[in-house]
Design a protein that fits this description.
The chain is of the alpha/beta class. It contains 4 helices and 7 strands.
Length: 168
């Protein structure tokens, strides 16, 4: 059986984002297609916009509390203010042990009822779910302002087969 992190993409979308405001708006729109049990992995260098995207997700999901980087606490839970899923925001940057260290956070317990967003999760959280959305944020190259980002969203697994990422 093929390892979960090697599954073929089910859906892919590329977007150019021109400002932090647009990054937040992308997160807000993305929240509309997320549902309980979704795992979202964010990849990008420091300052790329991972937390800004997650802040937009939190606004779109209607969760309680300011969405800020969980770098020092590792994970923050933002309960829903309505009937939607909670947002669990994880920063795996300082976790070097892969899934062993991640298991200490009990994310698999939260996964069915929450949207879990993991910054710096590559090689660490893929085994939590066969279905996940991988978001890669790159600074645009060439003659552009520092705020332009190229965002690639790749849905992996059956959950994302036929997903309408183009609506983002």
């Amino acid at each position: 059986m093929e390892a979960p992190h090697r599954q073929a993409p089910a859906a892919t979308l590329h977007r150019t984002v021109n400002s932090p405001q647009e990054m937040g708006e992308l997160g807000h729109r993305l929240a509309k297609i997320l549902r309980p049990g979704d795992l979202v992995m964010l990849t990008g260098e420091l300052g790329a916009g991972k937390t800004t995207l997650t802040r937009g997700l939190g606004e779109g999901l209607g969760v309680r509390g300011a969405v800020t980087s969980p770098t020092f606490v590792i994970a923050r839970v933002h309960p829903s203010l309505g009937s939607g899923p909670a947002l669990v925001h994880v920063d795996a940057y300082r976790l070097g042990g892969g899934l062993d260290e991640m298991e200490d956070l009990d994310l698999d317990v939260s996964l069915p009822d929450s949207v879990i967003v993991v910054e710096w999760g590559d090689g660490k959280v893929e085994e939590l779910s066969d279905d996940r959305l991988h978001v890669v944020i790159d600074r645009a190259v060439g003659d552009t302002t520092d705020e332009v980002r190229e965002v690639t969203l790749t849905g992996i697994g059956g959950r994302w087969a036929g997903a309408d990422l183009d609506s983002l």
